[in-house]
Every structure is written in structure tokens, then in C-alpha cells.
């Protein structure tokens, strides 16, 4: 992205920006170093060394550092501890605290890469690697931003915090969820939170749709495969349920629209996806099949619902179709097991963190900021639900469409621009800097 030259009127801000420009090579090296930690989730590889790398670096810049393990959260074990790092720099006088939160975990690399996904290859002004945009480039940019403030020796108010947290890709329960339940996002400790997710450097993400994950199991009666009339097939029952969804529910979902500025536009409708389905023989089966009528069939549904929808009604729609399926075939039954639920959330467009980021995006990039909402959830859900910080948004470098893709990358110029925007916003939100 090409930015117009912007020369701050404030000498203090100019000094911070000069330090960020001078740290370009350091920013690239930092991003590469973070990518080289293969923090795969699952199972939670390399969480502790990556967190300690961040903590050690922030300590050298004068930050106090705390490590918090998400004990007894999903996946936590002595082999795969859910290690989070929080670094804090106190200002010289009372004021508001700005917290930059980034998740260190990444999804599996998958197939289709043309380079080593954990090497951090630099090419054509970009850094490539798994997690480059989602979201180690954003973590690196936020670290460079607060380091520049610290190195400039500014007499700032309040506090600055950086956190590297785990498990965002699987719900965030051992990371931000754990920290939020224990007061790490409560006032007066924290007042504003910026999550540098990859959303394009000129966009501020206000929130996200709701999510309901559930496992539906249809049960029947086992029988011999040569005499299926003596059994009740759970697979056929599940087929009936899926047909009802196609005929009755999907047309209704397609008609529901949200006023949230979700991107891409297809996410402005209510959606339902089936993440997996299985019935009959065990998934690990290999060999000749047994001649059995399946007495169980399970699927995992992924319902993304709108801020205008009622959660109880969302569940009731599924239950009603399961009841209809059950009534059509004697001998069938069903169970619904809750897996994960998060309410939709959206920070108001006139919130201080939003208007401040809007101001600096316009100043530094030379164009108005755009407001969006995410199709899927991210760690804002924990901060606004369990923490006490409602002034929370996502803003960071990277292209959202590249997340979880082969040859994922982050643009170096975008990281520099976002670091400047984050630094200027932090100084404004702490009350240290007036609008330039």
C-alpha cells in the first residue's frame, strides 16, 4: 500500500515515527522470528518459547512481564501448557491504559505452499509464512509501535500493554478467555483494547456475528445389513433432517440481513454450515465393512447468527426440524450437545477507540477509514463478555482473505503504516497527545 507523506506537527510524534521508520529491518526480522516458532494449534506447539521470546524482548524495552498459564483449559497439559505473556509499561502519571492483544497460535500449514511455511521468507516487499498475516505481523507491528514510544522517552500518561495469547484459533479459552475471567481486562487496569488482526490497514473492525456450535446425534436401532427393515437407520434419519434444513431453514436464513458492516458481503446474512458428519462404522475403520444398520449418526453444525437474531430462536429452529424428522420415522431419536456459543458483539462507531483510529488512519494513509464487522468470532468476544472493556476493536496489517491460506504473507509497508497508526492512537488514547 502506498501512503501519502505525513509529517506530524508534534515533535514527540515525529520522533516516534522516525524510530518506526528506522526499525523497518528490525520489524521484518521480528516478524520472521515469530513465524519460526511453529505455534500450531492443535495441539499447542511452542507456545512457551514464543511467549518467552516476546516477554524477553519487551523486558529489554523496560516493560514488566508476566506469564500466565491457562490451567485446566481445553488442551492444557504439562506437555502443551497454555502459556500467555503480558507486558506492561507504566506512564509517569495517571491516565488510561491501551492494551494491544495478539494471538500467537496458528493453524496447520496444509498443502499448496511454494516455500517453507515456517521459514519467514522475505520476497517482493512481503514476509511469507504460516501466521504472517494471522497474526504475527500484527503482533510485531504493535511491539515496534510501543517500543518506539518507550525508546523516545515520552512522558506519557496511563499505561501501555502488549499481550501474546494462545488458542484463539480454537476459541481462545486458554488465552484471552482465561485472562478476561481473571481481571486482566478490567478497569482501571485497561481502558482500550486493539487487536491487530489482519483486516487491511485502512479498516477498523467493530465486532463480529454470533456463533453456535453444536453436535447433533440422531439415534436409531441396530440391525443386520441384509435385513434393514428390522433396524432403524440413523443415517436415513439424519438425511431427513438435512433435507428439512435445505427445504425449510436455508431459504429463511437467506432472507435475514444484518445492519452490521460484515465483510465479505455474504456474511451479512445468517448462515449455517455442517462442519462434519459421521455415521455407522468408526472413522478409523479400515477393511471389509460389517453388515450393520447404523444406530447413530452425528454432525457438527456451525450456525453464525446476526445481532438482530434471538439466540433461543436460533436453537429452536433446529430443534423444531429434529422433532419433525423424529415424528416421521418411528424408532428415531436425537440429542443435541452444546459445543460453543458466543453472542454477537459490536463496539459503537462513535466509541473513543474507533474515532481515534479513524483519525490516524485518515491522517497517515490519506483516506477515510472503513468500518467492518467480522464474519467469524475473534478474541473481542471474551474481552467484552468476561472483561470490563467495551472499548475494543480489531485493527492491524494483512489481508483477511490470506488467513489460513498457503503462501500466506503480510506486506512490510502495511506493517510500518499500522505501527505508526497504533503508536499515534495509543498516545492519543492515553491522553498524552492531542489530535495532530
Concise description?
The protein has 436 residues and is an alpha+beta fold. It has ten helices and 18 strands.
Named at the architecture level, the CATH assignment of the largest domain is 3-Layer(aba) Sandwich
Strand/helix succession: HHHEEEEEHEHEEEEHEEEHEEHEHEEH
CATH topology of the largest domain: Aminopeptidase
Give the helix/strand class.
alpha+beta
- Uncertain segments are none
Describe the largest sheet: 6 strands, mixed
Task: Please list the strands of the largest sheet in the order they lie side by side.
Answer: 1-2-6-3-7-17
Give the termini distance in whole angstroms.
22 Å
Which percent range fits the helix content?
25-40%
CATH class type of the largest domain = Alpha Beta
What is Rg?
Answer: 24 Å
Number of helices: 10
- The count of DSSP E runs of length 2 or more, i.e. the number of strands, is 18
Global mean pLDDT: 94
Task: Indicate the overall shape.
Answer: elongated
How many discrete structural domains? 2
Q: What would CATH call the homologous superfamily of the largest domain?
A: Zn peptidases
As a percent range, the share of strand residues is: 15-25%
Which key terms come to mind for this protein?
single chain; 33% helix; Aminopeptidase; 436 residues; six-stranded mixed β-sheet; four-stranded antiparallel β-sheet; 2 domains; 24% strand; alpha+beta; Alpha-Beta Plaits; 10 helices
Describe the structure.
Helices cover about 35% and strands about 25% of the residues. It has about 425 residues and is an alpha+beta fold. The protein has 2 domains: about 10-210 and about 345-430, 3-Layer(aba) Sandwich (Aminopeptidase), CATH 3.40.630; about 210-340, Alpha-Beta Plaits. The strands form 5 sheets. Strands 1-2-6-3-7-17 form a 6-stranded mixed beta sheet. The protein has a 4-stranded antiparallel beta sheet with strand order 11-13-9-14, covered by helices on one side. A hairpin with a 2-residue loop joins strand 4 (about 120-125) and strand 5 (about 125-130). Helix 2 packs across helix 4 and helix 6 (about 235-255) crosses helix 7 (about 310-330). The protein is elongated and about 85 Å long. The model has no long low-confidence stretch (mean pLDDT about 95).
Amino acid at each position: 500500500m502506498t501512503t501519502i507523506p505525513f509529517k506530524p506537527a508534534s515533535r514527540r510524534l515525529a520522533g516516534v515515527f522516525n524510530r518506526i521508520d528506522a526499525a523497518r529491518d528490525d520489524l521484518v526480522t521480528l516478524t520472521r522470528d515469530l513465524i519460526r516458532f511453529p505455534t500450531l494449534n492443535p495441539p499447542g506447539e511452542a507456545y512457551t518459547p514464543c511467549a518467552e521470546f516476546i516477554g524477553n524482548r519487551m523486558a529489554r524495552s523496560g516493560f514488566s512481564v508476566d506469564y500466565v498459564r491457562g490451567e485446566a483449559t481445553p488442551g492444557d497439559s504439562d506437555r502443551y501448557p497454555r502459556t500467555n505473556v503480558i507486558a506492561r509499561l507504566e506512564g509517569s502519571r495517571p491516565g488510561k491504559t491501551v492494551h494491544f492483544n495478539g494471538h500467537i497460535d496458528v493453524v496447520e500449514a496444509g498443502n499448496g505452499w511454494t516455500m517453507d511455511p515456517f521459514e519467514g521468507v522475505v520476497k517482493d516487499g512481503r514476509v511469507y509464512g504460516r501466521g504472517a498475516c494471522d497474526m504475527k505481523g500484527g503482533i510485531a507491528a504493535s511491539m515496534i509501535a510501543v517500543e518506539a514510544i518507550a525508546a523516545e522517552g515520552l512522558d506519557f500518561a496511563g499505561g501501555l500493554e502488549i499481550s501474546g495469547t494462545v488458542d484463539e484459533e480454537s476459541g481462545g479459552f486458554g488465552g484471552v478467555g482465561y485472562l478476561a475471567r481473571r481481571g486482566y481486562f478490567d478497569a482501571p487496569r485497561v481502558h482500550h483494547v486493539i487487536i491487530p488482526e489482519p483486516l487491511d490497514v485502512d479498516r477498523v473492525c467493530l465486532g463480529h456475528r454470533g456463533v453456535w456450535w453444536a453436535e447433533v446425534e440422531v439415534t436409531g436401532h441396530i440391525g443386520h445389513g441384509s435385513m434393514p427393515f428390522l433396524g432403524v437407520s440413523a443415517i436415513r434419519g439424519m438425511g431427513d433432517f438435512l433435507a428439512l434444513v435445505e427445504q425449510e431453514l436455508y431459504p429463511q436464513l437467506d432472507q435475514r440481513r444484518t445492519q452490521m458492516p460484515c465483510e465479505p458481503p455474504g456474511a451479512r446474512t445468517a448462515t449455517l454450515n455442517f462442519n462434519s458428519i459421521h455415521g455407522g462404522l468408526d472413522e478409523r475403520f479400515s477393511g471389509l465393512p460389517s453388515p450393520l444398520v447404523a444406530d447413530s449418526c452425528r454432525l457438527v453444525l456451525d450456525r453464525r447468527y446476526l445481532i438482530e437474531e434471538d439466540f433461543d430462536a436460533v436453537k429452536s429452529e433446529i430443534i423444531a426440524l429434529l422433532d419433525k424428522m423424529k415424528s416421521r420415522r418411528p424408532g428415531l431419536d436425537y440429542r443435541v450437545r452444546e459445543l460453543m456459543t458466543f453472542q454477537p458483539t459490536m463496539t459503537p462507531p462513535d466509541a473513543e477507540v474507533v474515532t481515534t483510529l479513524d483519525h490516524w488512519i485518515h491522517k497517515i494513509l490519506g483516506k477515510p477509514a472503513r468500518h467492518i464487522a467480522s464474519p467469524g468470532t475473534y478474541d473481542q468476544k471474551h474481552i467484552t463478555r468476561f472483561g470490563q472493556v467495551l472499548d475494543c476493536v480489531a485493527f492491524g496489517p494483512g489481508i483477511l482473505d490470506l488467513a489460513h491460506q498457503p503462501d500466506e504473507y503480510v506486506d512490510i509497508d502495511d506493517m510500518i503504516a499500522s505501527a505508526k497508526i497504533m503508536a499515534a492512537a495509543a498516545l492519543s488514547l492515553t491522553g498524552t497527545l492531542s489530535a495532530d
